[in-house]
Amino acid sequence: SQTIHQWPATLVQPVGSPLSLECTVEGTSNPNLYWYRQAAGRGLQLLFYSVGIGQISSEVPQNLSASRPQDRQFILSSKKLLLSDSGFYLCAWSVKDRLAGGQGEQFFGPGTRLTVL
Amino acid sequence: AQSVTQLGSHVSVSEGALVLLRCNYSSSVPPYLFWYVQYPNQGLQLLLKYTSAATLVKGINGFEAEFKKSETSFHLTKPSAHMSDAAEYFCAVSENFGNEKLTFGTGTRLTIIP
């Protein structure tokens, strides 16, 4: 079966510090990968998605970047955190190929709670 | 472009009462539709999905949803609410022709009154 991991689970960082959040997927290959953010009391905002190694699409201009160095690894980074980067960060994956049975649903990791002070 | 509207950001029901969470969608092609549940400080869990088969879809935890094309709706129901149903619920839509992104609604927080 497939599993998705995120770490760390919680993180408190000062303004201006760097950030690295990691997401890994097990039990599948060549997935689509996604990073979302939930600000307090807000819905889900898609930040980045990736259809393959080194292929990153950014949904919104911001202080963050993403990388996919390996097939099942997705990293969210920042060089200098802002207060507005605080939130709950969720990684998700989906089956790429509809012909292989993918029906568009995404499977989410447990999330990382980031507080920028 | 696809979109999702969830009517009611907060819904309260008594334990044992009917749960009804509303979702309306807009899509230029036949959609795939999903309901997710999120418990505090956790990721989203798939409750159920509609992928153009049966219009009445049954999911986990006793929830079900009915796809109504004429009303562009996909409302989530449960006959009898349980305290453990308290959570946030998200409706999402995907266009079923290669678009791998989901468009989420803004969510509905369900509170269960003892």
Task: Give a quick rundown of the structure.
The complex is a heterodimer of chains A (117) and B (114). With 117 residues, chain A is mostly beta strands.
pLDDT average of chain A, as an integer? 92
State the shape of chain A.
Answer: elongated
Number of strands of chain A: 11
Helix/strand/pairing class of chain B, anyone? mainly beta
* pLDDT < 50 runs, ≥5 residues of chain A: none
Quaternary arrangement of the chains shown? heterodimer
Give the helices and strands of chain B as they follow along the chain. Answer: EEEEEEEEEEEE
- State the helicity of chain A in percent bands: under 10%
- Give, in order, the helices and strands of chain A: EEEEEEEEEEE
β content of chain B, as a range?
over 45%
By DSSP (H or I, 4+ residues per run), the number of helices of chain A equals 0
Query: What do the pLDDT scores of chain B average to?
Result: 92
The global form of chain B is globular
Rg of chain A is 14 Å
Count of DSSP-assigned helices of chain B: 0
Structural class of chain A comes to mainly beta
Span of the ends, CA to CA of chain B: 41 Å
Biggest interface pair, counts: A-B, 24 and 23 residues
What does this structure look like?
The complex is a heterodimer of chains A (117) and B (114). Chain A has 117 residues and is mostly beta strands. In chain A, the strands form two sheets. In chain A, strands 2, 4, 5, 6, 9, 10 and 11 form a seven-stranded mixed beta sheet that branches. A four-stranded antiparallel beta sheet of chain A has the order 1-3-8-7, with no helix packed on it. In chain A, strand 4 and strand 5 form a beta hairpin. The termini of chain A are far apart. The model of chain A has no long low-confidence stretch (mean pLDDT 92). Chain B has 114 residues and is mainly beta. Chain B contains no helices and twelve strands. In chain B, the strands form three sheets. In chain B, strands 2, 5, 6, 10, 11 and 12 form a six-stranded mixed beta sheet that branches. In chain B, strands 3-9-8-7 form a four-stranded antiparallel beta sheet, with no helix packed on it. A two-stranded antiparallel sheet of chain B has the order 1-4. At the A-B interface, strand 5, strand 9 and strand 10 of A face strand 5 and strand 6 of B.
